[in-house]
TrEMBL record:
Protein name, as recorded: Thymidylate synthase
Record-listed (6R)-5,10-methylene-5,6,7,8-tetrahydrofolate binding positions: D195, A288
Protein's gene: thyA
Predominant place of localization: cytoplasm
Highest taxon of source: Bacteria
Biological process terms in GO annotation: dTMP biosynthetic process; dTTP biosynthetic process; methylation
Record-listed dUMP binding positions: R21, R150, R151, R192, S193, A194, D195, N203, H233, I234, Y235
Catalytic activity: dUMP + (6R)-5,10-methylene-5,6,7,8-tetrahydrofolate = 7,8-dihydrofolate + dTMP
Main EC class the enzyme belongs to: transferase
Keyword list, A-Z: Cytoplasm, Methyltransferase, Nucleotide biosynthesis, Transferase
E.C. number(s) listed in UniProt: 2.1.1.45
Organism encoding this protein: Entomoplasma freundtii
Family of the protein in this entry: Belongs to the thymidylate synthase family. Bacterial-type ThyA subfamily.
Gene Ontology CC terms: cytosol
Function recorded in the entry: Catalyzes the reductive methylation of 2'-deoxyuridine-5'-monophosphate (dUMP) to 2'-deoxythymidine-5'-monophosphate (dTMP) while utilizing 5,10-methylenetetrahydrofolate (mTHF) as the methyl donor and reductant in the reaction, yielding dihydrofolate (DHF) as a by-product. This enzymatic reaction provides an intracellular de novo source of dTMP, an essential precursor for DNA biosynthesis.
Amino acid sequence: MKQYLNLMEKILTEGELRNNRTGIDTISVFGLQAKYDLQQGFPLVTTKKVFFKGVVHELLWFLAGDTNIQYLVKNNVRIWNEWAFERYKKTDFYHGESQLEYIEKIKNDDQFAAQFGDLGPIYGHQWRNSNGVDQLKEVIAGIKNNPNSRRLIVDCWNPQEISEMALPPCHTFFQFYVSNNGQTLNLQLYQRSADMFLGVPFNIASYSLLLQLVAQECGLEAGTFVHTIGDGHIYVNHLDQVKLQLTRPPYPLSKITIKPFASIFDVKFEDIELVDYQSHPLIKGMVAV
């Protein structure tokens, strides 16, 4: 995972200090790219422990077209809790509950969750129902039937619905590319905004897993995940954590095994297994909302 670590070092040495909507400044570089060859192993960051269970559940949540956090909450995945809670706090029904109290109600009260657990038309909605189009299903059909197409694209940046989203999409646009005479599937993501310490390890793992799933359904080998970043940044309250992480030597990459399936939309959590993952201890950091 030297590619990821090199990007963080580049930001620390070349980045500019910038303010932003969160109130926590960042050190930022515009225009970054890294390539991860899945033939060499699964690119799950090893210089700190990554919550792979959360990566898998979030991706399955996207694939289902779901935008309500109840599924995540019931599976002890907290990565969207802050955004949903901030959305709830803006309603007339908020009466000073803590985030913990809100999450407990999401978990145990289906009616409350249905009303106040939704994040708006974010990723899963755009993947599966963007203005009535199931983009992901169409792309998979395109890979199978027209592998040389240059239109194997899923676009999450829907200007008509941005204002309805709890968070406009950070990973906005991805494209598949079949190479090696129709044997290998590659994926490039354009990410407009990238929290290098907290978010990017999840993003790398999530889209690499998506690449493996789509490749397996299409009878192809997973090739390269290309991660293209617009604003790559480190929040100033993560600087100590990043510097600690950069002192740690990477371990060998892990692998992923996936049970046979007919459609990625039928894949379940227990079908995906992370093999030989070795990492340094977790490093915590606060998310900027």
